[in-house]
Design a protein that fits this description.
It is built from eight helices and ten strands. The chain is an alpha/beta fold and 221 residues long. The strands form two sheets. The chain has an eight-stranded parallel barrel, surrounded by five helices. The protein is globular.
């Protein structure tokens, strides 16, 4: 089970995520988010990571030049596009960095996702994974705490040819084991579910989250 803890802002949170056993940590570069970091902050924190933990950058509707320049400068190894970026923009990113493409759940379920994946595939690139997040609530900065319809997602995901499925949205130490057992995702992503306040990570909650997530059936990574 691949586990990403997103919204890391300081050394204390970084150490807590590493000790908890996270496979990846996310750095949020979206202005206005309580989890936003500067390029300088992220570069410093990435330098402290062990090689076994993947640094991920979260971006939302920002110029692709900024995304790529930031990813290079910080030493990111995975780029998460969390907004309404065009296929052309996503393709430019995916040609240089593994791409984690976010998709917000809605009453339409996965119906809007198939054409997006088709358009990406037509450009000759495939996303590293698809992060299915909860319903959009205002600004798309992640960490909203809104849940996905787990049974419907599990039923509709189906196609083995699809990229990795990373589940997000409203996950926390109390419900992640159930989410994993219902959806069987390839990984999970958490931000607000392991915080005591917006942007403030709790080491104990991160540890409990990782333990609970791995209590579910492991799948490909």
């Amino acid at each position: 089970m691949w586990i990403k803890i997103c919204g890391i802002r300081d050394e204390l949170a970084l150490r807590g995520a590493v000790v908890a056993g996270a496979d990846a940590v996310g750095f949020n570069f979206v202005s206005g988010s309580p989890r936003c970091v500067t390029v300088e902050q992220a570069r410093h924190l990435v330098a402290l990571l062990p090689a076994t933990v993947t640094p991920v950058g979260l971006f939302c509707n920002q110029p692709v030049e900024f995304v790529l320049a930031t990813a290079r400068a910080c030493g990111l190894r995975l780029v998460q596009l969390h907004g309404d970026e065009s296929v052309a923009e996503a393709t430019l990113v995916a040609r240089e960095f593994p791409l984690l493409r976010s998709f917000n759940w809605s009453d339409l379920g996965l119906a809007p996702l198939a054409p997006q994946l088709g358009e990406l595939s037509a450009t000759g690139v495939e996303p590293w994974g698809i992060l299915v997040d909860g319903p959009r609530a205002g600004a798309r900065t992640g960490g909203t705490g809104n849940r996905v319809d787990w049974p419907r997602l599990a039923r509709d995901w189906g196609l083995a040819a699809r990229p990795r499925l990373i589940l997000a949205g409203g996950l926390n130490p109390a419900n992640v084991a159930e989410a994993v057992s219902v959806v069987h995702p390839d990984g999970v992503d958490v931000a607000s579910g392991v915080e005591t306040a917006p942007g403030v990570k709790d080491p104990e909650l991160m540890l409990r989250f990782c333990e609970a997530a791995r209590a579910g059936r492991p799948v490909r990574v």
